[in-house]
Specification:
Its main location: nucleus. Belongs to the DXO/Dom3Z family. It comes from Gadus morhua. One of its GO terms (cellular component) is nucleus. It is an enzyme of class 3 (hydrolase). The protein is of the alpha+beta class and 418 residues long. Helices cover 26% and strands 25% of the residues. It contains ten helices and 21 strands. Helix 4 crosses helix 7 and helix 4 crosses helix 9. The longest helix is centred in the C-terminal third of the chain and has 20 residues. The chain is globular. The N terminus is likely disordered. It binds adenosine-3'-5'-diphosphate (A3P) and magnesium ion. Adenosine-3'-5'-diphosphate binds next to helix 6 and strand 17.
Length: 418
Amino acid sequence: MDQHGRKVNPPPSGYKNHRRNMDNDTLSVNPKRFRPSHSPHRADPAPLSSSASSCRALSTRRQLYEKPFPVYKQPVEVGSFSLDSERRFFNDARQIRYFVEPPSRPDFNLRDGYKDRFVKRDDSIKEKLDHILRWILANKSKLESRVAAASSSPALGVDVVTWRGHLTKLLTTPYETREGWLLAATLFRGTLYLSEVETEASRRDTENRTERHQEMMYWGYKFEQYLCAEDMKASPDPGGVVNTNEAFCTVVQTKLADHKLLFSGEVDCRDRGPKSPAAPACYIELKTSAEICTPKQRSNFHRFKLLKWWAQSFLPGVPRIVAGFRDPDGLVVGTETIQISQISHLIKNEYNCWKPTVCMNFCCEFLSFVRTVVREDSPRVVHLFSWDPHQDVTYTVHRDSSYCFLPPWYVEGMASPH
Ligand code: A3P
Ligand code: MG
């Protein structure tokens, strides 16, 4: 079934180099073609709205970011961790699940078990970066030994530590018209930590979710259960409990222009075939979406959903998505595999559609902006970056406030020699 009109066409310019390199070891264009935003030679208008000497705001206008694709190195998995059914951290891959190909006519009822076999994670508990910080402490000597030679770099050898989901939000910002965000930034031992803060609007939305919406949030997890087995030789167990506390997270390292990034993201499952490649190329993202019946629905799928799906998987180098299309009653009517590298072809006939280069360039400029603004290296200082649709990104500074997010156990753990 090719209900989305997928066919292979030459890639649009700008994305071509990056695609070609994706098969090698870097996702990049010629680095010489990348111009940092502060370059005096830039021909396009500066995205920084500056007042005299200091930069106070960053524009999110799409046109400013229509530049060559920035260097984005092929992400490398440097570790992984697991969260169990009680959300306890383990420095290992015990929660990894294995992908099992769905039947050509799947009989998946995503509503099954919502009332009686669902344990929902308590999302009022704000975990901030805690699990990633735990992983960093548990792997501190390994990380530090990698940078021992390069004395000028930060202790951890990376410029930015964050969740993949926070970067996904940055990538989609130039196209987002509904939801703003707040990102807290702290510079500690030369590394910038970025941690999301819930907005008032998001808190209200969560509080006012309808019963139908709450149930539909379960459907995505239920779909995962139909396609995932707990070990190499097992089958999925649709009669089991869906517990959203459980997670397997990959930790990857990569570089966006001159920003060395270390981030973690949840991974749904991995390929279990004998020829499956090394992580993260063996990982598979699972998604659900409403069945597509009209050209308008297809266009919306391309414009809105594929943007989010692309951003989420492209960042950690997850190469494919298995999508389940469902009817309004939560029955899966078909599944399809979508290669991340093919998404730019799928959207190319959409008028005025999103562009991967805009997403990546905006993220890159945002990180440069943050590094320009945040100069004081202290776990007690938070710069809170704030964005609302149709506005610039702005920030406020907070010292010893409730926005501080690096816990004492991390600050002390990083200072101790072992
Ligand atoms: P879908 O992806 O099928 O929508 P992820 O896809 O990132 O692995 O997330 C798994 C599932 O969590 C989603 O499945 C969806 O059911 C639920 N979910 C995650 N974030 C959500 C959000 N912001 N709103 C609604 N549901 C969400
Ligand atoms: Mg998923």
